[in-house]
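User: Phytanoyl-CoA dioxygenase family protein, Denitrobaculum tricleocarpae:
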Amino acid sequence: MLTAKQIDFYRTQGYLVLERQIPEDLIAAARAELAHFIELARGIDESNDVLDLEDSHRPDQPRVRRVKLPHAVSPVFGDLMRSKWILDPVRALIGGSVRLHTSKLNLKSAGYGAAVEWHQDWAFYPHTNDDVLAVGVMLDDVGPENGPLLVYPGSHRGEIFDHHAEGYFCGAMSLEKSGLDPADAVPLTAPAGSISIHHGRTVHGSDLNRSTRDRALLLYEMTAVDAWPLQGSFSEMGTLEDYDTRILCGDATIAPRLEPVPVRLPIPKPPQLGSIYQVQKAMSDRSFDVIDASQREVNAQT
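Assistant: Predicted structure for Phytanoyl-CoA dioxygenase family protein:
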């Protein structure tokens, strides 16, 4: 369980890092599973329901930037999600009844791993209350040079920034227009096996991987069971029966808890839907450099 000091830090700062939280054997199993999925990219030309590929991917040189819904396609990732190593700290922060929102495994391969522009998860899927968070499992050592998650402390207690461009939701925000100073962002660095937790309203992003070391981050996004998605968001409930299958622990309810939280709906939806990497391409005011394909080749060889 978390200490009172750790819980207070999360409440005030909007994030938390727990070093070496996951046992080494579970991290080794997760890495082996990841290697399997990367190999599945060999020979395919484009992204599919499981793999999201880098723009510079080639069938003979597979480059994966995301494994989609890893909990659903791998028992290793599914079991880890339901383990005490993940759920105990989550329960301490948002209560004993927890629902899975989604999962993803984001890869930043050495020399060419793609950036994720500044955003708030809440901009994609506002709920009736903001007991919404993301748990990141570090499968590699994360340092300042290989694309760590960057967060703005305390930003979860402020406004929801504009994530639109050209009249459409683009899943990214402008630091300049938002009045945020790049120098105030904090990198979440820690050894492999550590976890990060950030609030759904915390402003965060990650730079390109400019190093010779990979950085894989397994993300489980979770909500309190009584936090219900708002109509117009990117959240899809399906039937009540389907929705309740996502409950990881605790009791179901049909009584949403309503809190006075700020909301901007992610509408109109972008003309071309896809992963966050695709949606954010509509953002012209980018904070992180974009490395073209030729430069990625050079970086990958140095």
